[in-house]
Amino acid sequence: MTSTPPTPQPAGRPSTRSRLHQALARARALWRDMTGESAYDRYLERYAREHAQCLHGHGGDHGSGHGSGHGPMSEREFWRARAKQAETEINASCC
C-alpha cells in the first residue's frame, strides 16, 4: 500500500491549517481584548511610543505621571495599580 503525496496548494492561497490558525489567533486576540487581559500589552506599546525619545529609554521631564523614571511597570505592578485605580475612582453615574 502506497501513500499519496499531499495535493499542492495554489500559489497565494493559505492552507486550511493556516486559515484555522489565523482564525484562532484572531479569536484569542478578541477574547483578550474583551476580558481586559491585553491591557498590559497595550500599556507596554504606549509606554514604548511615548518614551522612545527619553534619554536611555527613561528619564526626561514627563511630570508626575511618569512613575519612577526607571522604565515601564512590571506586569504585577501594572495590575496592582489598575486595581487600586478602580477602587479609588468610583463612577456613580450610569453612563
Automatic annotation (TrEMBL):
- Which residues lie within the region annotated Disordered? 1-22, 55-75
Segments of skewed composition (Basic and acidic residues): 55-64
- Compositionally biased spans, kind Pro residues: 1-11
Matching InterPro entries: Sel_put
Could you identify this protein by its name? DUF466 domain-containing protein
